[in-house]
Design a protein that fits this description.
The protein is α/β, with parallel strands linked by helices and 292 residues long. It is built from twelve helices and ten strands.
Length: 292
């Protein structure tokens, strides 16, 4: 897999585009590029189709790297993913990263690890057998991963791993599994708010869906958070670990802690933006602190 060092150390992760018209999305991507951000990550949550949106963002920019974080594997067949990602790699060499994750319409009885391994098997077979011309710059692929087995799959079958809502201790553990060479991209939510009560209230609202679903509850237990810390909106310790808040220098230093723990890249998600709004003022300030 192609090296992902061109993403830079810090990038932007946003849900904002789910609630904005295309013209505004394109203008935002162009401004982020002009500000010096090198990577833009976005999820697939049931609104906009992941690879179509990636293509649009790439078409509106010249240098920005566009990362699916993630494209849901059960929202499209492996054949569709192969065809779309191959075209994007050919049309925009070295600028698209196909981030894949366990998501989409669930299939009863299929485990995440087996589903992801099977999907990657199909993609690799298609790459060898497809009549579609292979791009000169190969498709760059990362896998959403948390536990050691999925991290190992990401290490062995892709350029590396993308983690979501983890603490810095998990980043260090993930690096141990991935080894020194595989890519590790870490998403982390932030809030430029100094007041503890205001910051934690906003953070708890953001974390609420994750603290109420069985999969995520199990995920947060693994690094040692107790059921009491997870319940009732999360303890201060859990909230402060999963959402970095404070003044600009404080937030920047906490984000650098992921890099010190072994992350190659940190995708920064500004939270607290109302649907239809934009975090651009905060992205401008973060750029002053985080970009070269």
């Amino acid at each position: 897999m192609t090296n992902l060092g061109t993403l830079g150390t810090f990038g932007i992760y946003t849900f904002d585009f789910e609630h904005q018209p295309a013209a505004r999305i394109g203008d935002t991507a162009q401004e982020l590029e002009q500000l010096g951000w090198r990577a833009l990550w976005f999820p697939e949550v049931g609104g906009r189709e992941a690879l179509t949106q990636a293509g649009y963002l790439l078409s509106r920019t010249e240098r920005l790297h566009v990362v699916n974080g993630i494209a849901q594997i059960w929202s499209r067949t492996a054949a569709a993913t192969h065809a779309a990602s191959t075209l994007l790699a050919d049309a925009h060499p070295g600028r698209h990263v196909l981030g894949l994750g366990f998501g989409g319409e669930r299939r009863p009885g299929v485990k995440p690890l087996a589903a992801m391994a099977g999907y990657v098997d199909e993609l690799d077979a298609l790459a060898k057998e497809s009549s579609v011309p292979a791009p000169r710059t190969p498709v760059r692929r990362v896998l959403a991963a948390y536990g050691p087995k999925m991290l190992a799959l990401a290490r062995d079958r892709s350029a590396g791993a993308h983690t979501y809502h983890v603490n810095t201790a998990h980043t260090a553990q993930a690096r141990e599994v991935l080894g020194p060479d595989a890519f590790l991209g870490v998403e982390h939510p932030v809030l430029l708010e100094r007041d503890p009560d205001t910051a934690r209230a906003t953070a708890r609202e953001h974390l609420r869906p994750y603290l109420e679903t069985p999969y995520n509850i199990a995920k947060f237990r693994r690094p040692g958070y107790s059921d009491e810390e997870i319940a009732h909106g999360g303890s201060d310790r859990l909230v402060d670990d999963l959402v970095f808040w404070g003044d600009l220098d404080t937030v920047a230093d906490k984000l650098h802690a992921h890099v010190r723990a072994g992350a190659d890249h940190v995708a920064v998600q500004v939270i607290g933006t109302a649907p239809g709004g934009t975090a651009m003022p905060h992205w401008r300030r973060l750029g002053e602190a985080l970009l070269p």
